[in-house]
Amino acid sequence: MSIRDPKISFKQPAPFRRALNKRIQEYFKTEGKSRRDVPQMYLKTFMIMLWLWSSYALLVFGPGGTLLTIAMVISLGMATAGVGFSIMHDGNHKGYSQNRVVNALGAYTLDMLGASSYVWSHKHNKIHHSHTNIDGVDTDIDLGFLGRMTPEQPRMAMHRFQHIYLWFLYSFLSVKWVYFDDFKDVIRGRVGQVTMPRPKGKNLLVFLGGKALHVTIALVIPMMFHDWTLVLGLYMAILAVQGVVMATVFQLAHCVEGVSTANVEEQETYIDKEWAVWQIETTADFAPNNWFVTWYVGGLNYQVVHHLYPSICHIHYPALSKILAEVCEEHGVKYQIHPTFTAALFSHVRWLRRMGHPSTVQTSQPQLAT
Ligand SMILES: [Zn+2]
Fold first, then answer.
1. Which of 27, 89, 102, 308 would disulfide-bridge 97, Cβ 3.0–4.6 Å?
2. Residue 65 Cα to ligand 1 middle (Å)
3. Are the C-beta atoms of residues 173 and 251 closer than 8 Å to each other?
4. Residue 364's pLDDT is what?
5. Per-residue pLDDT reduced to its tens digit, 244-260
6. Is the CB of residue 252 less than 8 Å from the CB of residue 284?
7. DSSP character string of 188-235
8. Exposure of 340 by Cβ count < 10 A (0-12 exposed, 13-18 middle, 19+ buried)?
9. Phi/psi class of residue 12: alpha, beta or left (left: φ > 0; alpha: ψ in -120 to 50)?
């Protein structure tokens, strides 16, 4: 059901959140660590940017050859997704630095990659983070008729095969985002059912300038040196790699077995759980002991901590997840962790199969009391 600007409230008071905040504060105090401006982040940013630009230089100005071209397409697809995970995400959540210019620069890397940081801040920070896995508000679980992500969404016969065909559609995520979704959201002045002020002044300049800069770097400059059909084909391939990688990381956090979902049926909806507990129930971690995954996805494999403390630099997430696990244990809250990337991946496939199966009947806001 489509309800414009639904109001969703959560249970109060929030003893779990209070206890957790206290422990997190104690951690930073006793360890003498800063929540933002972590030196490793600056080094990491340099490394990822080096990866990105050396891949670009090798692809556009390098010696060519089929193998090198394929390797650089995959490398660029992964490096651009890495910029999104590790630099843009912290910057846009203001978790990179105390300095707002540094955060803005981090956020603007998304504009360079072709997608709007302005729209993202509304879609991701305000809508997805506040109302995770609530159908009718959270656009991250809204694939339209193409996919059924929650039991509350209507089922169509083709969803029977969504665990197979969605992987192909994930490869179009980036191109749709850059050239369709951003423009649609800005023109309509809303993201899904939630109103978004249209960008003006500096925000509009960054929106349009970012799109122009991206097209110049990704298409115009390469076309000065290579045939335009080849450039366009490789560009689409890079966006396809980036799309599959990003969609996978998004989905492993919220569309796996065991997570809670709900939907909006009223203008004002009350969820009978405190907000922090809802975040933990709708989100799952994966591969916590895999250092490469943790590095590459910008700590988003510790997605639960990220949802609770998005403005703390992601370098801290592994340590904070241990505190979170203790507090969850004390309060009887189930903290969901898939031990490996593969385990989470299979869980996502099983979730898609279950949502697409005729036996999974459509339910109506099982977690809500309105
Ligand atoms: Zn986030």
1. 102
2. 38
3. no
4. 63
5. 999 999 999 999 999 99
6. yes
7. HTEETTEE-PPP-HHHHHHHHHHHHHHHIIIIIHHHHHS-HHHHHHHH
8. middle
9. beta
Length of the chain, in residues: 370
| Host H or E run for residue 337 | strand 337-338
224 Cα–ligand 1 center, Å = 37
- Round to whole Å and give the CA distance between 254 and 243: 17
0.90 exceeded by the pTM? yes
Tell me, in angstroms, the distance from the centre of ligand 1 to residue 121's CA: 9
Contact yes or no for 173/113 (Cβ under 8 A) = no
Distance from the CA of 179 to the center of ligand 1, in angstroms?
22
Distance 83 CA to ligand 1 centre (A): 14
Amino acid at 275: W
Tell me if 272 sits within 8 A of 11, measured CB to CB. Answer: yes
Q: Which two tokens stand for residue 344?
A: 């989470």
CA of 309 to the centre of ligand 1 (A): 9
- Say which residue the tokens 């366009």 belong to: 232
How big, in percent rounded to 5, are the helix, strand and coil portions of the chain? Answer: 65, 5, 30
Distances in whole angstroms, Cα of residue 210 to Cα of each of 10, 97, 186: 37, 22, 14
